[in-house]
Write a structure and sequence with these properties.
Number of helices: 2
Number of domains: 3
Distance between the termini: 92 Å
Structural class: mainly beta
Radius of gyration: 30 Å
Shape: elongated
Largest sheet: 8 strands, antiparallel
Strand content: 35-45%
C-alpha cells in the first residue's frame, strides 16, 4: 500500500515538472495599442491662472490604460508642448498609474514660456493655448504610443497694481438685519474714492436696520441715534432701512453720510422684454477699474441701460461709437449669448464682450434648469464672482457655466471649496442669499452662500 502511494506521488511530481517545462516554452508578444491612449477626465472651457492660487490644482489629467494585448508594466509620461506639434516636448511628470496632477503654478510656468503675460503695460497677450499629451511605453521606451493632443485655453487676468489707478477696499462695512443678519456673513464692502476720507458702498438692503462697523468686528461701530445724517457711537443708534439697492457714502472727515437709491441694469427685448418679464440685470461695482459690470445671458433683440429699474434715466448708443447717450432711437442691438457688460459712468463708455457666465442651478433654484435660466453671478473683479438677493428653495444646488453642464462645480466634502467630484450637490435652505465664488484663494475655489 505504501509503495502505491509513493508511486502516485512520483507521477504527480513528474506531471508538475513537465507542465512547468511547457509553460517556459510559451512566448508572449506585446503589440502597440491600435487606439493609443484616451483621456477620461473632463476639461474646462478656460483655465483662469492667478499667481495667488499657484499651489491650487490646475487640472488632474486621467486616462485609460494603454492596451498592449498582454499583461505588461506600462510607464506613462505627461508631455507639454509650447509649439503644439511636440517637436519641443518636455516631460511634466511620469507614473505607472493613470493620473497626473498639474498645479496652477505649473500652468503659469508653461503659459509664460508660451509668451503669455498678465502685465497690462506689455504687448504680450494674456490668453492662449497650452498643449498636452500622454505617452505610454514598456521597458525603456519600448513600443511608445500617444494620446491625442489636448489643448487648454488659459487666461492670465491682467495684473492690478495699486487698484489699477482706481480704488481700494475700505476697512468699514455694512452690517445689520437689513443686510447680513448682524454678521451671519461678511459685511457689505465700502471702497475708497478720489476724495480723501470719503468711502462708498453699493449694496442691496432688506427691510430692517443697519449700522457701519470696522473690520467685521464690534470694536468700532457707528450708527445714527439722532437721524440727522451724522454718524455717532451712541447706544440705540441703528439706522432703519427699506428694501432696495442703495449707494451709501460716508465722509470719515466729519462722519456725515448719505443713503440714496442707486442701481444700474440691463433692460430690453434682448433681456427681460423691456421690464415686463422681470427686473433688470443688475450691474455690480468693480473698485479695481471704477466701473460697473454684469454677467448676463442675452437674447436676439435690443437693450439699453437704465437706473433704478425705471425710465427716469436710461442710456443707449445712438451712433454705435461705444459711448452711451440719451438720444432718441439709441437702443443697442444684442445677439443671443453670454456676455460681460461693463459701463464706465466717468466717461459713459461701455463694452459688451462675449464671456463665460457662472450661475446657480438646482432643485433649490430652477429645477435643475427646467424652470428657467440659472441665477447669474458677475465677475466683479478678476476671478471673483458675486450676486446678491438670490432666492433659494429647500433642495440642492451647484454652480455651472453658461447654463450648460460642460463645466459645473459642487462641494462633495462640505469644506466650502468647490470641486468636480461625483455626488457634490450643495444642500440649500429656503431664503434670500448673497453668493460669491473666489477662484483666487490659495486653498482652492472658495465659495460663500450667506443667508440674509
Amino acid at each position: 500500500m505504501k509503495n502505491i502511494k509513493l508511486l502516485a506521488l512520483l507521477l504527480i511530481a513528474l506531471i508538475g515538472f513537465n507542465a512547468c517545462d511547457q509553460e517556459d516554452d510559451l512566448v508572449f508578444t506585446a503589440q502597440a495599442p491600435v487606439e493609443g491612449i484616451i483621456f477620461s477626465n473632463s476639461f474646462l472651457d478656460e483655465y483662469i491662472l492667478t499667481p495667488t492660487a499657484s499651489s491650487n490644482l490646475g487640472e488632474r489629467f486621467t486616462w485609460q490604460n494603454a492596451n498592449y494585448g498582454v499583461p505588461t508594466n506600462t510607464t506613462y509620461e505627461l508631455e507639454n508642448s509650447i509649439l503644439g506639434d511636440f517637436t519641443d516636448a518636455t516631460t511634466v511628470g511620469t507614473t505607472d498609474g493613470n493620473e497626473l496632477a498639474v498645479t496652477i503654478g505649473n500652468l503659469l510656468t508653461f503659459a509664460e514660456a508660451a509668451g503669455l503675460d498678465n502685465d497690462p503695460d506689455t504687448d504680450l497677450p494674456n490668453t492662449g493655448m497650452l498643449y498636452f499629451r500622454v505617452k505610454a511605453f514598456i521597458g525603456t521606451e519600448g513600443l511608445p504610443t500617444y494620446s491625442a493632443t489636448q489643448e487648454l485655453n488659459v487666461v492670465l487676468p491682467e495684473e492690478v497694481i495699486g487698484g489699477g489707478g482706481a480704488f481700494e477696499v475700505a476697512s468699514w462695512g455694512v452690517v445689520g438685519s437689513g443686510y447680513n443678519n448682524w454678521g451671519a456673513f461678511a459685511d457689505g464692502k465700502f471702497y475708497t474714492t478720489a476724495t480723501p476720507g470719503v468711502i462708498v458702498s453699493y449694496v442691496n438692503l432688506l427691510d430692517g436696520e443697519i449700522k457701519f462697523r470696522e473690520n467685521n468686528t464690534w470694536d468700532s461701530s457707528l450708527g445714527d441715534a439722532n437721524n440727522d445724517g451724522i454718524l455717532d457711537g451712541d447706544n440705540d443708534n441703528n439706522i432703519a432701512v427699506t428694501a432696495g439697492d442703495y449707494k451709501i457714502t460716508i465722509d470719515t472727515n466729519d462722519n456725515s453720510y448719505t443713503l440714496e437709491p442707486f442701481s444700474w441694469g440691463v433692460v430690453g427685448s434682448g433681456y427681460n422684454d423691456w421690464g415686463g418679464a422681470g427686473p433688470d440685470a443688475k450691474f455690480y461695482y468693480d473698485y479695481t477699474t471704477d466701473t460697473f459690470k454684469v454677467g448676463v445671458q442675452l437674447l436676439d433683440g435690443e437693450i439699453k441701460f437704465r437706473m433704478n429699474n425705471a425710465w427716469d434715466v436710461a442710456l443707449g448708443d445712438a451712433t454705435g461709437d461705444g459711448v452711451l447717450d440719451t438720444d432718441a432711437d439709441n437702443n443697442i442691438a444684442s445677439t443671443a449669448g453670454h456676455y460681460l457688460i461693463t459701463i464706465n459712468l466717468n466717461d459713459n463708455s461701455y463694452t459688451i464682450e462675449e464671456s463665460n457666465v457662472y450661475g446657480v442651478v438646482g432643485s433649490g433654484f430652477n429645477d435643475w434648469g427646467g424652470a428657467g435660466p440659472d441665477a447669474s453671478l458677475t465677475e466683479v473683479q478678476p476671478g471673483v464672482w458675486f450676486a446678491e438677493n438670490i432666492t433659494l428653495l429647500d433642495g440642492e444646488i451647484k454652480f455651472r457655466q453658461n447654463n450648460t453642464w460642460d463645466v459645473s462645480y459642487g462641494d462633495a466634502t462640505g469644506d466650502n471649496i468647490l470641486d468636480t467630484d461625483a455626488d457634490n450637490n450643495i444642500a440649500s435652505e429656503a431664503g434670500n442669499y448673497v453668493i460669491s465664488i473666489d477662484f483666487n484663494d490659495a486653498e482652492g475655489i472658495k465659495y460663500s452662500i450667506g443667508k440674509r
